[in-house]
Amino acid sequence: MGVADTPPRHILVATDLSPWAGMAVTRVAQLSREHGSVLTALLVLPAEIGEENADRAINSLEAHLADHLDGAPVDITIRRGTAAREIASAAVDCGADLVVVGAHGAHWLADAFLGSTTENLVRMSPVAVLLVKKPAEGAYRKVVLAVDTSATSADAARFASGLTPVAEHSVFHACTVVGENLLRMNGVGEEEIEELRRTSTEVVREHIARLADALPTPLKEVVITSGHPATRLVEVCHAYAADLVVVGTGARSPVSYALLGSVAQQVMRQSQSDVLVVPAVDG
């Protein structure tokens, strides 16, 4: 499985019946209407839950979906086990090309930061994961596409552009000088470091321009700046009042599976916008 250039044909929404998950279901209903996507709703129950409580949970799920889907047809799936693993597995089994979850939940997404389940899901998921933080008030309108010079970044931007065809899209890239602190420790001055930043910016500008020209939707603007990528990205999203920010996770490996990319992780935790995290395409 990998990232498609077309809008999602099949969306999996995982819910724990909480209000945050309800916002995710409402967003899925909007995306389904916009793209004609097939919907599957998933509830993951603890392995040890009794049958009587499971039956009550299923009834609650049906009421929850009726409240938030506004009549959109949906298939229902119930699984038992660890939430992140079961969600990722269900995405494969049902052929989903997008997984949608809420930012916080009643249990499996309730942690001090964002929630280890959500971050584990992003690590495991073979398809893009949309983290819903805001109520869905129509289609996405302002989208920030975070890009670098990788093929993964271009794939993520194309997928997001297809997912949000009526939005204003802004491409964002933050240039950094590798080893800035080490340079300072070796006596390199701020003026020299700033010159290195300017040089890096000019080198990357042509590449980002080509990437932007290849996107399927027109762009509002291309922002190339310097600084810590995740920090600057969160700041730009806030300044633009973006309702969605898009990041890639980079290539998958045993290391990248264990450590979620720092930019994606920080944006997931700190952004006030919804966050779409797109994995690298296998192969």
Automatic annotation (TrEMBL):
UniProt keyword terms in alphabetical order: ATP-binding, Nucleotide-binding
Domain UspA, chain residue ranges per copy: 9-133, 140-279
Origin superkingdom: Bacteria
A molecular function (GO) term: ATP binding
Keyword ATP-binding belongs to the record: yes
Classification via Pfam families: Usp
Family from the record: Belongs to the universal stress protein A family.
UniProt name for this protein: UspA domain-containing protein
